[in-house]
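Lab intake sheet, docking and co-folding queue.

SAMPLE TYPE: protein with bound small molecule
LIGAND NAME: thiamine diphosphate
LIGAND FORMAT: SMILES
REQUESTED OUTPUT: full 3D complex as structure tokens
PRIORITY: normal
SUBMITTED BY: R.K., bench team

The fields below were copied directly from the construct record.
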Amino acid sequence: MLDMYRLMLESRRVDDRMFALNRQGRAPFVVGSSGHEAVQVASAFALDRDKDWVLPYYRDMGVALAWGMSLKDIFMAVFARADDGFSGGRQLPNHWSDRDLRVFTQSSCIGTQYPHAVGIAKALQIMGEDAVVAVFGGEGSTSEGDWHEAVNFAGIHRLPVVFITENNQYAISVPSSDGVAGSISERGPGYGMHGRRIDGNDALEVYRTVKDAVDRARRGEGPSLIEAETYRYYAHTSDDDDRLYRSREEVEEWRRQDPVVTMKQYLIEERLLSEAEEKRINQEVTDVVMAAVEKSESAPAPDDPYSHVYARLIDPGPAATVPEPAVQGPIINLITAINRSLHDVMETHPETVVFGEDVAGKKGGVFKATEGLTDRFGEGRCFNTPISESLIAGLAVGMGATKLRPIAEIQFADYIHPAFDQLVSEAARISYRSNGVWTCPIVVRVPFGGGIHGALYHSQSIEAYYAHVPGLKVVVPSNPADFKGLLTTAAEDPDPVMILEPKKLYRLVKGPYPEGEWRVPLGKASIRRNGDDLTILTYGAMVHFTMEAIPALEELGISAEVIDLRSLRPLDWPTIEASVKKTSRVLIVHEDNEFVGYGAELAAQIADKAFEWLDAPIRRYALGEVPAFPYAQELEDMLYPNPEGIIRHAQELAKY
Ligand SMILES: Cc1ncc(C[n+]2csc(CCOP(=O)(O)OP(=O)(O)O)c2C)c(N)n1
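RESULT FIELD (auto-filled):
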């Protein structure tokens, strides 16, 4: 209890110091935790700091200190210094991260930590590890979809996770009456878990409640939800003026229940602490805080904004100039190859885990991509998720923080949009925001594209959204061998890789399937055919339509070089450049919208870097100004790029 008190006091002193530094103009932005010390420190004490995991949020100074974060690191983050141990000056202060201490890196997005927590907990369950995960957040965060998706999943799988809500009555200025329906703790039983509402300012009550929850989780009895009532004494952050939404009387009322004062009084009344000892502790704490400020402020500033965007940078190497040698193996269609590749990768990489909607059991996916995986590898390694795309992506991010290598499936690209935040704001930034300490070794498989009579919501192309994002890798295999090679490389890559599967090709395209080890490097395009008169840059289903157009173009005397880009991010620029220098004419073909589509980037790069070699404007053949392909066959046929269109565009370009 004395240790707890010292840490609560330390947390309070750090806060006071941070706000003072802010007022002095030395710290541009600070976040306070004052008022929350009991729930934070006592929760940390109820966990096993040698083996459990924590996902604290930005207000959790008490958790950070109790978990062993150094004061020097904490203040270095306040001053955005290079070696702060959290993000190297890339994130705002209070964005905790420590791989050795099992504190997963966090973002500023409210609620995104919950799917990560259940991902870690699911991984611990699969690996049979005796550890518990505690995830923290404000009451405002319990209104996010991610919270509900994560709590639901934890309830279904009886995961060893404790959800701790620090209900400080406000989300910035929004009172909980405007943000939270009913009671947070009472949602617990609804999601199949214990729910308790407690006085978050009473450290001993917090300790007992969290300890019970942790013990239950450790015994395999599943998750718990704890709502701790508390209050913050400072404004939301140094940028907020809380006088606009809270009365002085209300703040004073809560100050009378100050958790640090309450704890001190309890210790003195119980004769566990004397006034003199308390004074000494107080002075010691003040001294260490002041010393940490001094050491941190003068530390060097960061100087490299480009490092750690990726855990593994890809060098495309020299330009490909000729088609790759023919692959040997049985001739199978693309969907069979996807299924076999997943079997092969799961066999050779025991740390891989497959999950998504409908992927498990006898069904094996709506396209049968995952058929047989549960039977062969067990329910731990191939399991169904609820219809929660954000959770699927966040689960992968959390699992990737452990020794596991998640391979997630999004059923259709059209339904990936709820996962955008987890993929873009979380997965893509894990390495960068943790200064290279954490990686995000996840694979996300996504069937995409039209030409299948799938209408507006089973036909979308999404590559432009994701290829835009530094930190992600995006590949599009167009044949069985490339799928196997890219899946294998992606599963071994330390960065998040999105595999876009042209679902029109699933049963349409057949090719040799390489048995045994087979890798295709990320970032490497493939020349499908050499030619001299123009270069056609394409990927996915359009590779095949382009190849279909070739005989007709030959008859017209046009020799086209066809490049299957295969990897949209990173891009194999040397191969494109070499081809453009040879042919001086470029046609780009894709089935995504033309406007701000992937082809726009290709055209811009070619115009920038190879302008002198061009003899004609760069042309694009892509989807026009409609949101996606309509259902009626007549309408889809009018819009879907086809060999005739490719011939027409190539002819015009060759004539230019
Ligand atoms: C997804 C998202 N929406 C909005 C914000 C802006 N924002 C930052 S903190 C905050 C309030 C959070 O309240 P709560 O979860 O109760 O935690 P508290 O700050 O009160 O501890 C908001 C809306 C954000 N960071 N992320």
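REVIEWER NOTE: The longest strand covers residues 586-593.
SIGN-OFF: pending second check by T.M.
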